[in-house]
Amino acid sequence: MVIISVASGLSFGSDSKSVMATLCFFWFWLGFGIGGDYPLSATIMSEYTNKKTRGAFIASVFAMQGFGIFAGGMIAIMVSAVFKAYYPAPSYEIDTNLSTVPEADYIWRIILTFGAFPALLTYYWRTKMPETARYTALVAKNAKQAAADMSKVLQVDLESEPEKLQQKKGNEFGLFTTRFFSRHGPHLLGTTRTWFLLDIAFYSQNLFQKDIFSAIGWIPKAKTMNAIEEVYKIARAQTLIALCSTVPGYWFTVALIDKIGRFKIQLMGFFFMTIFTFALAIPYHHWTLPNNRIRFVIMYSLTFFFANFGPNATTFVVPAEIFPARLRSTCHGISAASGKAGAMVGAFGFLYAADAIGVKKSLMILAFINFLGMLFTFLVPESKGKSLEEISGEAD
Q: What Gene3D superfamilies does the record point to (predicted)?
C-alpha cells in the first residue's frame, strides 16, 4: 500500500497507460489491504470490549474516517493554494490550453502520495497486534494462548480454563450450511443489502458533490475557472461539508449508539436521508435560485450528517457483533464487499444518470434507494447490551 501510493504519486512524466496501470494496482491493493482491515478492525474491537460500551468503541474506530476525510480535504486545499499562487493561469473559457498549466499535474500526485504516510504509521502496530482471544480459544482451540494474548492486551494476569471454552458440536457450523442460513441468513441479507444501498447513495453524493454544487451555483461553472482554481474551490466546499456534517455525524453515533441502539440509529438515519433527499429533489429548481442556495447546502449537509449519525456507522458496527466467532470477520467482509459494490454502482450510475435524466431525477432515485435501505434495516437485529455469544446464539 505504501509503495503503490508513492509510486502512483511520484511517477511524473509517465504515459497515461502506465499511470492507469499503477492506479489499477493501487485500487487493487487498497481493496485487498485496507478493505480487509474493515472486518479485522471491527472484529478486534468488538471482541476486546465489554457489552456496555462495545458499540461506542467500534463506532469510534470507524469515526476516524471522518478525520481522514477532513484531513484529505485540508491537504488538497493547501497544495492547490500553493500552486494557485505560484502558477496563475487564465480560465478555461478564455484560453483552453493555458488554463491547465503543466505543473498542475503534480497536484494530484502530491495529494495521493500523502496517503502513504498513514499506512506506514499503521504498519508497525499491526504487526504487534495478537489474534483475538475468542478466535484463538473457540476456533483455534488454544485456550492457553488466548489467555496469554488477553493478559498482554489487558495488562492483567489471566489463567486459561479449557473446560469452560469447549463449544457444543451444534455450534460448529460453516458459512455454507443450512444451520447458518436458518440462524443468520436473514441477518446477512440485512447487513449486505443495507450496506449496498447505503453506499450507492453515499458515494454518489460524495463523488459528485462538485456537479451538484455547480448546478446550484455554490461554486462557479468549470469553464469560468482554471484547473488549479477548480481543485481549490471544490476541495474547500467538500471540506466545509465534512467539517459541519460528516465529522459531527460520526461522533453523535459514538456518543449515543449504546444508549439509543444500533437499530434505531440506522432506521432514523435512512429515514432522514430519504426525507432530505426528497426535499432536495422535488423542488430542485427552487433551490437553484440565488437566494435559496444556502438553504440547499444546509439540507444537503444534513443528508451527510444523518448518513454518519445513521447507517454509514451502524453498517460497520453491526456485522462485527451478530455473527458467530468463527464467521464474524468473514460475514463482516462479505457485508463490506457488498457495500463497495454499491459504491461502484453509485459512482458510475449517478454519473450517467445525471447526464441522461438530470440531477433532479437522479436525486429522486437516491431518495428511493434510501427508503429501501430503511426497509432492509428490519432484517438486522438489535445488539445493544448483549454479549457477543448471546447475540450470535453461541451461548445456547
A: MFS general substrate transporter like domains
